[in-house]
Each structure stands twice: as structure tokens, then as C-alpha cells.
Amino acid sequence: MVDLLKRQLTDSDLAEYFLQLDVKPEKVDDNYRTEALILQQTDPEKGYPRLVKNMQTYGQGLSVEIPVNSIPIRIMMNKTRVQSLTSSTFEKATKTEAPKCFLCSLDKGQRGILTNDQQYLILTNPGITLPGDLTIAAVKHDYQMITNRFEDMIRVARSLYHFSIYFNGALAGASSPHFHFQAGYKDKLIGEIQIQKLLGGQAVGPARLRRIIKRAGTEVFNVENFLRPAHIIVTKDAEALLVYFQRYLTILKQVNQDIKGIANVPDFGDLIPSLKIIESEPRLNIMLKYYPDYDGFILALFPKIYNRPQCYFQKGDNQILLGLAIKEALGNLITVRESDFNKLTADPEFITRIYTDTSITPEMVEKLNNLLKKYS
User: Fold this and answer.
1) Residues 335, 274: Cα–Cα separation, whole Å
2) How far, in Å, are 29, 174, 189, 200, 209 from residue 144 at the CA level?
3) Separation of alpha carbons 348 and 139, rounded Å
4) pLDDT digits 0-9 by tens, 18-71
5) Is residue 287 a contact partner of residue 299, using CB atoms and an 8 Å limit?
6) Which DSSP string corresponds to 65-124?
7) Which of 42, 88, 82 is nearest to 61 (CA)?
8) Measured between alpha carbons, how far is residue 77 from residues 8, 150, 227 in Å?
């Protein structure tokens, strides 16, 4: 096991990259350290060899935007995502041995910076959705569970104010059992841009915001007609954000009790073999952003049934390798095979089914909304 604390890059290690960013020493903070880290790790001579190689591979990928029920979705064929897309860490209910943890066994040259009172190591992610993607790993191996960690997510979002911070639940797309957030440059993913448009009163196909809670500067919206269920919380009050998130987690857990008897989907509340614990928190993808210019937060929550659509379990030519985690919830469907890319781009209705397979049902959404309003 690698001692993550020994993989830290210091300000001295990053000095030449601060110069490239034109950041004066007195302005250096964790946000600019992270941007300098990205430059250092992608440096062909001094950086992280696997990431440098993957940046070249990423440039050879395919990408196209298509309308799905008038909602733009981006389809990508990106071979750097093979490890995360094919991970079965939280699948195969009979598997009881602990999987190898790639966050406890970092690659040669993979280094990072410490944040949040040295509780997390910020690393560049070699599985690239967009350049600048990050993994923010707990320095000690712990369960991939957001309970008691959301306050950390708020602090990280405040520190990395040029980035969106992401979280995938254990059965909602996480590829490692080691606790981690993800991050990427803010407002680059197609779904993030669409959420900003909706909040600004602009149209995104048939999608619309339905406000279900408004209280003391905090608003909670259900996003309707968006292919996948989503809730948005907007506030300047970090304490209120924490309270509403904890309430959402509790209520969604009640709703998730209905996830039973679905083909190829583990029943909610069963044993998670790779964690060796009973599932105790709801299936969820999370995005959190902080805007220092007005001291405000935008939280997006995507409640899930599972991360694998039914096409993943088909055989032969009928199979499509897909895992729906936060990047996919934000409108970027990522494949690693050109044949899968071609199938997805040829059939928008098939993409509708993929989101339906992995999202909670309309009945569950309505139950969730009613409970949120009742306990607001």
C-alpha cells in the first residue's frame, strides 16, 4: 500500500507552474495549487507518464452532440476510460474478496497535493472525460459513502472554486471502494451548462424547473423532462445546504426501499461484498459548485436505481459497455468501443431507455418530491 502522504507535491515542486499560471506567491491557494498540479502532471518530461500517454489517446477519441427528446446529449468514444467503465468493484453479488484498491496503489509518477487539513490528496485522473479531471482521495482507506462526508465536500468546493466537485455512490457508478470525490473544471460538461441555463430562465428543450421548496434564501427544484430525474439546491447558506442534503439522503433512502426484484439490479439494502457491509445509504450521483463572487452554492442530485443499463448485460453484438455515473448524469455518455459509439449515435431513443434503466421511476420521483415538501 502506498502512503498517500508521501506522494505530496510541495509549493517548491510547483513553483515553475505557478509562473506559467501567472500566480503571485501571495495569491497561491489550493485552487491554484490544483491548477499547477494539472500542469505538472501533464508535463511530458516531469509529469505522470500514464496521464501524459492518455492525453495523446484522448485526442484521438470521437465526440458528437445529438438531441435526445430535444435534450442535447454528448456521446464520447474515449479509451482512457476503460478502467472505470469496466470496473466491477460493486457488482457480482457472489464476489466477497476485497478488490485491489488503485487509490492505495498509485502509479509511478502519480503525485498530488493535500487539502482539507491533509485529509485528502488531490490527484489528476488518468481516465479523462475532459482535460483537468481530478480524483480527490481520502488519505486513509475508508468506505465510499457520503454519510458524514458532505461537509468535507462543501469545504473542498470552497477551496477549489474553479472546479465542480463530484461524488458517485457505491452502486451509482463509483469504481473504487476507497473514499473519493472527483472534480473537473467548472461548467464544461454539457449537463452543467444546461442546468445553468435553466437556473437563468433559458430553455433547454422541454426541460423545466419546478420549485418544490423556497425558504430563507434556499430553493430546491425538481428538474422535469430532462431524460433523468434531478434535484437542484441553490443557496448561499452552507449550513442550510448541509441540512437539506442530509434530509434528502434520509428521504431518498426511504424511496430506495422500492428497488427490489428488478432484473440485473441488486435489491436495495443487500450486502455490498466489496465493502463487506449492508447497503445503508441511497444510490446517488452528486455535483457541487461554489461561486466565490456571490458566495453561493449550486448542488445537483441525481437519484439512481443502478449505474448499469440493461444493454450492459446483453451478450455479443447486443451488449453496450456503459456505466452511468455523475459524468453521464451530466449528459456525457462515454464509451470505449467505436461499435458502441456508433450504436448510440444512430438511435437517440435507445439513449432514452438507458437513462430510464438507471434512474428512479417517475412514481419514486413523485414520492420523493412529496416527502421533501412534507419535511421541509
Assistant:
1) 25
2) 27, 8, 24, 34, 30
3) 42
4) 999 999 999 999 999 999 999 999 999 999 999 999 999 999 999 999 999 999
5) yes
6) EEEETTEEEEEEE-GGGHHHHT--TT--TT--SPPP-TTSSPPTT--EEEETTTTEEEEE
7) 82
8) 32, 32, 21
Residue 233: partners with Cβ closer than 8 Å, 6 or more residues away: 218, 219, 220, 221, 241, 244, 245, 248, 297, 298, 299, 301
Who's near 198: CB < 8 A, 6+ residues apart?
204, 207, 208, 209, 223, 232
Burial of 147: CB neighbours in 10 Å, binned 0-12, 13-18, 19+: exposed
- pLDDT of 214-243, one tens digit each? 998 999 999 999 999 999 999 999 999 999
Instruction: Assess whether pLDDT exceeds 80 at residue 204.
Output: yes
- Identify the band that residue 97 occupies on the pLDDT scale cut at 50, 70 and 90: low
Determine if residue 104 is left, alpha or beta; phi over 0 gives left, psi from -120 to 50 gives alpha, anything else beta: alpha
SS3 at position 1: coil
> What does each C-alpha distance from 349 to 71, 75, 88, 343 come to in angstroms?
12, 14, 27, 11
Total structural domains within the chain? 1
Contact (CB, 8 A) for 359 and 305? yes
In angstroms, the CA 330 to CA 305 distance is 16
Model confidence, pTM: 0.95
Q: Report helix angle 338-346 to 348-358, nearest 10.
A: 100
Q: Which H or E element spans position 279?
A: none
Which residue range forms the structural domain that includes residue 173? 4-374
What pLDDT does 93 receive?
43
pLDDT tens digits along 292-338: 999 999 999 999 999 999 999 999 999 999 999 999 999 999 999 99
Q: What is the CATH number for 234? A: 3.30.428.70
